[in-house]
Fold this protein.
Amino acid sequence: MSLLSSPVFSQAATDSTDLLGLPGDNLDLYAVLTLFQKSKTIEAFEKSLNDEKTGINNLDLNLDKKVDFIKVVTKKDGDAFTFILQVDVTKTETQDVALILVSKDKKDKVSIQAVGDEDLYGKDYVIEPKGNSSITANPGYVGADPVTVDVPATTTVVVQSAPIVQYVYSPAYVPYYPPYYYGYYPPWFGFATVMAVGIYRHNHYHYHGGYYGGHYHGGHNNVIINTGNRNQINHYNNNRNRSTTVSDNRAKGNYGTGSANRGASASTRPSTGTSNRPSAGTSNRPSAGTSNRPAAGTSNRASTGVSSSTRPSTSNVSSAGRTRSGGGGYSGGGGMRAGGGGGGRRR
């Protein structure tokens, strides 16, 4: 029993968040936002996001078992930037994946939030660095005279000084327009095989500690879109890109359960009594010492726990995101080649 329990405790210690049962399980926005802040330019961010070596992009919207190329489109309104992550699903269909909102208030304080597209992450999937908010000084103090003055969180400085933030608000900033489209990608993009969602999540859970929000907690997200970013969202919604292919796959449950507003569902957790294990007293198990007499609760009478042959178990449903995995590995689908600009036709 100890040996059987070990994987359960190990997984709980590394990843306490629930699967969404949606494509977003294969693109961790915590990792994306961390990579974004560390990048020196938007073009560099796009390249690192799609680089097989970083392993951050594991998205497969067209279900060809190959990782999709994510391009980054920029919209700017004064001191407010909206970076839209997109996938060209077919020659005629584009699906927005997520937004990264960067804005500056009147006091020059920078705010960064990532918002997952509803089709991929469910409604109101928003994360932000913990430095975006304030904390109470010494919140653990419980004496008679606690300090109640709010002070900026230490990670605020990290957000303000992030290379990408310094770049977009500097005179050196040059708008980036991705030249890529369906079938035409940079030569270094290798079309890696999609890895199993369990392995992918294990590789990236450590990014989650520096952020608020994201996964649903009891059906509610504890982060809302900042007031300064609300106008960006309203403008974006008028031009949002949605793919019919993605909508159809989601409706059919091809990405998982299709459940967006709750955590792990039946398809992401094993049943307490799976169909591979007969219920107590079925006809497949003779009673002790009597081969001609069936056990209590014969095959002509269903036991109190319905037999696997009469009631399908949830274990017949594939785990969210696992149906399109290319096994447990993450092998290159064409290899990586160093190169600068330009593009190559998809082979």
Remarks:
- The chain has one domain: 14-137+148-261+319-345.
